[in-house]
Design goal:
- The protein has 6 helices and 10 strands.
- By secondary structure, it is of the alpha/beta class.
- The protein has one domain: Spore Coat Polysaccharide Biosynthesis Protein SpsA, Chain A.
- The strands form 2 sheets. The chain has a 7-stranded mixed beta sheet, with helices on both faces.
- Helix 2 packs across helix 4.
């Protein structure tokens, strides 16, 4: 099953992060397509009256969709794993990936969130995170839960080929431009499009976590991301 899965990483013109991700993928023993991202002078962004925040959001969201398009149109593999470049990945990910894909198929999922932002342990007794698949076993220490709308982050996710195609066709231009005048549309943001569509779930514990190195101008955001990193990091488990 691993041979039927492609790996893709969005790394926006950052050689240090790109090199770090290349080393992490090498540690996993997989080849990954690393994409340099979308600049503000891209024709899908340039020439529009956008705020600085909106430009940034469109840039990384188009970046995500570009790697999804790469998988869908230029690969024959059935599954795609997509990630950002500021993450640590579990050293045993590939060991568990066949079972993850097997459970993905059993649950008939379209999208499985492998890396995201959470300050707290995901508990099946919390109704927001009801179980959608097999519970933890000694051999496979992961559980699969409902993915509520208030969970943010697209640090890493698994898509089926079918779902990748549906996302590409739904959110390709002019979708982003239409959101500027139609408030009923989902914002053009990976958190509202890629991770909130189809039959979706999240895995816990996380396969990928933020590396804790990104700095934010907003103190509240900085604290949130720092806590998410601290509470999910396990020394020796993640390749740094």
């Amino acid at each position: 099953m691993v041979d039927n899965c492609g790996f893709y990483c969005l790394s926006f013109q950052n050689e240090k992060r790109k090199t770090a991700m290349e080393n992490r993928f090498k540690n996993l023993g997989v080849d990954a397509y690393i994409y340099e991202g979308v600049t503000f002078d891209d024709e899908r962004i340039a020439g529009r009256d956008l705020t600085a925040i909106t430009k940034r959001v469109w840039s990384f969201t188009y970046g995500h969709f570009d790697i999804i398009r790469e998988f869908y149109f230029n690969s024959e593999k059935e599954y795609g794993i997509f990630c950002e470049d500021d993450i640590f990945i579990r050293n045993d990910f590939i060991e568990h990936l066949p079972k993850i894909i097997e459970n993905f198929e059993k649950m008939n999922l379209d999208m499985l969130l492998l890396g995201y932002l959470t300050q707290y342990k995901i508990d099946k007794n919390n109704g927001n995170f009801y179980l959608k698949g097999p519970d933890v076993t000694k051999e496979h220490p992961f559980s699969y839960h409902n993915l509520p709308n208030f969970i943010w982050g697209a640090q890493m996710y698994l898509l089926s080929r079918k779902q990748a195609g549906e996302l590409v066709h739904k959110y390709s231009p002019p979708y982003a431009d239409l959101t500027l005048t139609n408030s009923s549309l989902n914002p053009f943001n990976s958190d509202w499009t890629i991770t909130k569509e189809g039959n979706r779930a999240l895995i816990y514990p996380l396969i990928a976590i933020e590396d804790g190195k990104t700095k934010y101008n907003d103190g509240g955001q900085q604290n949130f991301h720092d806590v998410c990193h601290k509470n999910n990091y396990v020394e020796g488990l993640f390749h740094e």
